[in-house]
Amino acid sequence: MNGERNETALALHRKLSEIWGTPPGLGKLSAVNHTAVGLRFIVTSGIFFAIGGLLAMLIRAQLATSASPFMEEGLYSQVFTMHGTIMMFLFAIPLIEGFAIYLLPKLLGARDLAFPRLTAFGYWCYLFGGLMLIGALAAGVAPDAGWFMYTPLSSSIHSPGINSDVWLLGVTFVEISAVCAAVEIVVSILKLRAPGMSLARMPILAWYMLVVAGMMLFAFPPLILGSILLEVERAFGLPFFDPERGGDPLLWQHLFWLFGHPEVYIIFLPAAGVLSTLIPVFAGRPLIGYGAVVAAIIAMAFLSFGLWVHHMYMVGISHLAMAFFSAASALVAVPTAIQIFSWLATLTYGRPRFNVPMLYVFGFFFVFVIGGLTGVMLAMIPFDKQAHDTHFVVAHLHYVLIGGFVFPMLAAAYYWMPHMTGRFPVQHLSRAAFWLIFVGFNVTFLVMHLTGLLGMPRRVHTYAAEAGWDTLNLVSSIGGFVMTFGFALVLLDFVLQYRYGRAFPRNPWKAATLEWAMPLPPPVYNFASLPSVDRRADRIAPKEIGAHLAAGRGYLGFARNGQMETLGVSITSGRLEQLIILPNNTFLPLWTALGTASFFLAMLAKLYWAVPIAMLLVLFCALGWTRVTGSQADRGALPVGAGEEAPPHAECSGAPSWWAMVFTLASNATLYASLLFGGLFLWTSAPGWPAEEPPGMSLSLSALTAGMIAAGGVMGAAAVRRAGQGPRALLLASAAAHLAATLLLGWMALNGVPDRTGHALSAVCFAVLFYAGFHTALAAVFALYGAWRDATGLVSQRRNLDLRIGRLWHLYTAVTGVLGVAFVHLLIAMGSAGGAS
Amino acid sequence: MMRKPGEGTVLLLLVAGFTLWGIAFVQLYTFQAIGCRLGWDGIGIAGAFTLQRAVLVLSFILWLAAHLALWQWLRGREEMGAQEGDTLHRAAADLAVAAFGAAVFCFFAVFWLSPCL
Amino acid sequence: MGGTLLGALALAGCSGDLSALDPAGPAARDIARLWWAMLAGSVVLFLLVMGLFALVMLRPEAGRRWSPRTWIAGGGILMPVPILFVLVVFAFAQGEQHLPWRGEHNPVRIEARAHMWFWEFHYLDYPEVQPMVDVLHIPANYDVDVIATSDNVIHGFWVPRLGGKIDATPGHETLVRLYADRTGSFGGICAEYCGTGHAGMTFRVEAHTPAEFRAALGLAGEEAE
Fold first, then answer.
1. Which of the four pLDDT bands, split at 50, 70 and 90, describes residue C4?
2. Which among C69, C72, C88, C166 is the top mutation candidate for probing chain B, defined by the most B β-carbons within 10 Å of its own β-carbon?
3. How far is A225 from chain C (nearest CA, A)?
4. Half-sphere exposure (Cβ direction) of A432: Cα atoms closer than 13 Å
5. A297 vs A437: CA distance, rounded Å
6. Per-residue pLDDT for B4 more than 50?
7. φ, ψ dihedrals at C121, nearest 5°
8. If one looks up domain A689-831 in CATH, what number appears?
9. Residue C123: enclosing H or E segment and its boundaries?
10. Quick check: A809 pLDDT over 90?
């Protein structure tokens, strides 16, 4: 009996491996599997971390004594700019993405993420964008205006080279991967869970990642917008930030920090999620205060969007306005404290075990608490007046980021490394490595608080001996090198574990979450069959469930038509809802990313004629993604094992791709709102307003344009109701209206706004009209695509997903387009010399 | 295959409190900036009490009322609460209270500090 | 942590031409006091959290005298909120006090124009005085309003011992009040990164008696302020 079961399990393993496996050789580049791509993200971010660390060593060598500078100012500025840029954009965020991509499906009881090809596309964008930045560093033309790229220092007058373009384009390229990952993570957590896993039963880490991915959707767009506007200013002369022409350097700071502060919590929260996962395991009991922690992280996510001005206390904002931000900055300590005390309570009500991951948890407590306390200090406006832009801030941010991110992620590495390699650590070096990092870190950065208070500003390449900062800096440098040795030992430790660790069966830590209910290292398909969850998912018994699933006794314990299948559930209750059929390995993500890279390279090389070609290339590739989706016939409910049935996702209203469009548009709306607020901000704050030569907009033409936009949107949306009964005429009419609207918007932007390089009012109007035109053009593509899908028989009353996704775009375009035209008129009325102001 | 009504509603309830806080934040910050731009702080109403401060204080009080109303409504829902989402409905109500507290904490300075200096 | 830091302080000393901990005016002194108070409070809180961590790791049963609810609500809300509230109110009050209010007498107004990479000081109340580079003369024991601006990139005007820092942003005029309560010479420095000359963009603030101040500006005769 037992032997027979094993044989079935083995046969199932073979069949599933064949379907889900990645081809060898060059075929590896076509991998879309979340385990493979997740590990690529993690390893790549590790390499960037090493490069960033190397730059940090250069900085510490430069500053070791007042007599030691060996880099001249220009090179030094590239080094510190790239250190920050790499650590933020090429290390921290991608590591989080990789970690989530690798772990989430395993934690949630799914076989992959919702959009495997998007995972792969995101990875390529990250890699190519990162290579752009590293290539520039190697070529000596790296960004050099500081990692927050303040204008006008980063604008074309003061940075005429391509250094700033590299930053704006490279980072935006990498951010595409962050937004892709965010959409994917949100949808996967909401829809791709094991049946029975309601929201309230999710493992706590899934809550953290849900909140983080949600934050990414809203935090990245302001920076993406800022980068686009600054690049447009640099490349085409439209002034958004130039104070000589009605722009304002402070707009950049607002957009940057509106991203930049949530970013800190985007980095911290996944690490806190790691702690909320590890601490219960090592306490031997479930987390205490699950509900309180969920509430705390949601509160933290919101509060973190209300702090950005605490980076800008010195720019001359009124005391009351700063006070809002100062209070919010102090208040964010409260949800942090709630989590810390939940962890302490969990430990005290458990039987804590002390080992290497817990050593890093100790490191977290020690370092992060200090970072949090100095954070509250810096939130106080008077104190910040002295500490702002000094090494005190440098010390603080390293306490927060290394304490709140690197230490927990090292704990995570030691904890999940056995999961990734299937080998248990030897742990001879681990403790020594920890203590080197811990001592080295505190030696480096604890004294640096004092260096800052004694007046040493950030980003100086040298200092006078009389300043009295030599001893402190030397101590910091020595500590820095000790810390580097520690990181090198960690790396060695990982290599040794990978090579010489002893193999082990399952669940070495006695954890109670689903990712340990699989053989290790994990098979490509994760689970031979999918579990059903009847309790909170941090209280399961991986051993029993694992055997049950490996034998194929859960859902989908079979192979069907060579299809990659997993299950979708309803968001709140976790009821089985749909059968999700995932696309196979393909080179399309790579091609699309290469197309995207050609866009960014054309911009960088100032080959502007090639830019539209590259955009069409990307559009063409993207349309290619749809070739394998869709079916010619309704299939209805299909058996999914365990005696249950579910329809394929294309026939479900809540299909993952529909939700993906909802969240993409939410993110897009944030970008648009940032643009409109940017316009209003310039009106309230920028010098040189009202404009002398405002754009002239004919009211009747604008009304006609708005009418066209609305008509196209409404017809495109209405086509859904005619799915299966000839929606084509409506779709074609919609496409025509959208095209007409695009032309009208183009005409308004080119003819109505002649002075677009002369004044920010015109530049903003141009940007808003361009945004609307870009969306109507894509809406036409959506309408035509819908008509084509209908013509090829892929649309029916049940299979109307394409049209419903299109409807979202149509409605979004209509609302934002009409709003945009109205906004342009409003801004002109408020901001012109003749108008009311 | 129609979506069940209210799929994911609990997520909206969870973020309701702090969304309100966020809107209040934006409104107060925006009105502060616009008021200074239009010189509302130079228009006295009673002594040192200017139009600028009146607008901000009034907004603040209205927002607090809105927070309390939301909290009441969520508590009502919590008591009706579906079994499944109990933890989350309670968390939503707790978050509404927290958002009220956050509003008091973050905006009480409208009574006091210099709005345009 | 507190011990190490205090030890380091004792070693290095807090004095220095650019030290924020060696105040020479009321604003810097208030802020230094705020810092020392916050440091003391932070040391206590840090020791508390680390002590609790040690307790729950070494003797977990000892922590069970408090219910989980007490741990979370007590440590997470009841402890931090009052502390933060007091701190915030105190910092607001201090911030309000440091604002450049129009006092009983008119402050001396000086425009600080930031260039790449030097400072040019214009004495707005004395149009006949030539602008000076990298030296700012002020009267001691008297309010001075520095109006910072720039026509190139953003710079940061900072005199640590007088507690004044403000960004000099192109297109904007920002205001910071300086007050030296003794005569003397104080270091100033550019705080905001402004390009390759950033590190060298230092200046001096010379605080004088009224007579010396007029002399330093090359103004004739004694004149009541």
1. low
2. C88
3. 21
4. 10
5. 28
6. no
7. -105, 125
8. 1.20.120.80
9. strand C119-123
10. yes
The candidate with the shortest Cα–Cα distance to A219, out of A93, A107, A109, is A93
**In a shared domain, residues C212 and C187:** yes
How many Å apart are CA A726 and CA A790, to the nearest integer? 8
Pairwise CB contact (< 8 Å): A291 & B88: yes
User: Is there a single domain that holds both residue C161 and residue C129?
Assistant: yes
Averaged over A407-419, what is the pLDDT? 95
What's the mean per-residue pLDDT of chain A? 94
**What ipTM, to 2 d.p.?**
0.94
Round to whole Å and give the CA distance between A508 and A492: 22
**So what's the pLDDT on residue B1?**
38
Task: Supply the pLDDT for residue B80.
Answer: 67
Domain that holds residue C87: 2-11+18-98
| CATH at C165 | 2.60.40.420
Return the pLDDT at B5. 45
| Predicted local distance difference test score (pLDDT) of residue C104 | 60
Confidence class for position A7, pLDDT limits 50, 70, 90: low
Single-letter amino acid, residue A732: L
B84 touches chain C (CB under 8 A): no
Q: Which two tokens stand for residue A244?
A: 């000589």
Is A297 an 8 Å CB contact of chain C?
Answer: no
Adjacent-strand bridge partners of A569: A576
pLDDT band at C7 (very low <50, low <70, confident <90, very high): low
Mark yes or no for CB contact C85/B105 under 8 Å: yes
**pLDDT tens by residue, A503-537:** 876 788 999 999 999 988 899 999 999 999 999 99
Closest-approach residue (CA) in chain C for B109: C92
Cβ C139 vs Cβ C207: under 8 Å: yes
Mutate to test the interface with A, among B87, B105, B117 (most CBs of A within 10 A): B87
**What is the arithmetic mean of pLDDT over A67-84?**
93
3-state SS assignment for residue C187:
strand
Structural domain includes residue C225: no
- List the single residue in C1, C13, C56 with the smallest CB-CB distance to A344: C56
Provide the residue ranges of all domains of chain B, joining segments of one domain with +.
14-111
> What confidence tens digit (pLDDT) does each residue in B32-63 have?
999 998 889 888 888 778 999 999 999 999 99
Higher-confidence residue of A246 and C1: namely: A246
What residue of A is the nearest CA neighbor of B112?
A320
- Give contacts of B105 with chain C, Cβ < 8 Å: 81, 84-85, 88
CB-based contact (8 Å) between A30 and chain B?
Answer: no
pLDDT of residue C94: 94
Q: pLDDT per residue over A576-595, tens digit each?
A: 999 999 998 999 999 999 99
Reading the block at residue A316, the tokens are 């001359």
For residue A423, CA distances in Å to A499, A506, A517 come to 9, 10, 16
Looking at the structure, tell me whether residues C196 and C116 fall in a common domain: yes
Total domains in chain C come to: 2
Contact A493, A437 (CB under 8 A): no
- Please give the pLDDT value at position A655: 93
Which residues 6+ apart lie within 8 Å of B63 measured at CB? B20, B24, B27, B28, B103, B107
> Which residues of chain B have a CB within 8 Å of the CB of C100?
117
Residue C221 has pLDDT above 80, yes or no: no
Q: Span C192-204, mean pLDDT?
A: 95
Euclidean distance between CA atoms A268 and A191, whole angstroms:
25
Looking at residue A645, the DSSP 8-state letter turns out to be: E
Q: Do C96 and B105 touch (CB under 8 A)?
A: no
Residue C114 and residue C199 in one domain: yes
Element (H, E) at A581: strand A576-582
A288 CB neighbours in chain B (<8 A) are none
Contact yes or no for A734/A758 (Cβ under 8 A)? no
Q: A726 in helix, strand or coil?
A: coil
**Distance (Å) from the C-alpha of residue A615 to the closest C-alpha of chain C?**
34
